[in-house]
Amino acid sequence: MRLLLTADTHLTPRYPNRGLPDELWAAVDTADVVVHAGDWMAPELLDAFEERAARLVACWGNNDGDALRARLPETAVADVGGLRLAVTHETGAADGRERRADVRFGPGGETPVDVLVFGHSHIPWDSTTPGGVRLLNPGSPTERRRQPACTYMTAEVRDGALAVVRRHELAPAAARGR
């Protein structure tokens, strides 16, 4: 099963010439499951993802208004090919992230999962908590901020486990508006 992980698309009327890179749309079209960790900023973008994705697991972010919050949860949890996955926008500061994630999402936590996808920082992240929860932040395909490139991630689920995770860097011409 192929996953596409993205977050922080930040599409807004403030940037009318910005769209998502073609490479990201191609990944949406070929993924079995698309995971979006919030900060859409435009309900029309959610409409487009719902139309194009075979399956969408998504949440709202801190920059998403009432229209998006009415349609999306703060945290979504799903079974993806036997893998228990959660997606939420914010996990707080990097310092202590693994500990906080284990309290909420680790074994014995409020919502035990195998993988937690998050956004907010625009900084790609891949770590595993002491409790065994894989933490993934795909970065942003549109706003690199202090990173060398805009990014997204793909992953594969095999036999109920996360088998392959890849971070993709977008060419500067592919991602506009930074």
Can you summarize this structure?
The chain is built from four helices and ten strands; from the N terminus they run E-H-E-H-E-H-E-E-H-E-E-E-E-E. It is of the alpha/beta class and 178 residues long. The chain has a single domain, classed as 4-Layer Sandwich (Purple Acid Phosphatase, chain A, domain 2).
Supply database-style keywords.
Metallo-depent_PP-like; Purple Acid Phosphatase, chain A, domain 2; single chain; Phosphoesterase; 10 strands; alpha/beta; 4 helices; 5-stranded mixed β-sheet; 178 residues
Textual characterization of the structure:
The chain is α/β, with parallel strands linked by helices and 178 residues long. It has a single domain (2-169), classed as 4-Layer Sandwich (Purple Acid Phosphatase, chain A, domain 2), CATH 3.60.21. It has helices at residues 22-30, 43-52, 66-71, 97-105, and strands at residues 2-6, 33-36, 56-58, 75-80, 83-88, 115-117, 125-128, 134-137, 151-158, 161-169. The chain is globular, with a radius of gyration of 15 Å. The model has no long low-confidence stretch (mean pLDDT 93). It is an enzyme of class 3 (hydrolase). This is Phosphoesterase.
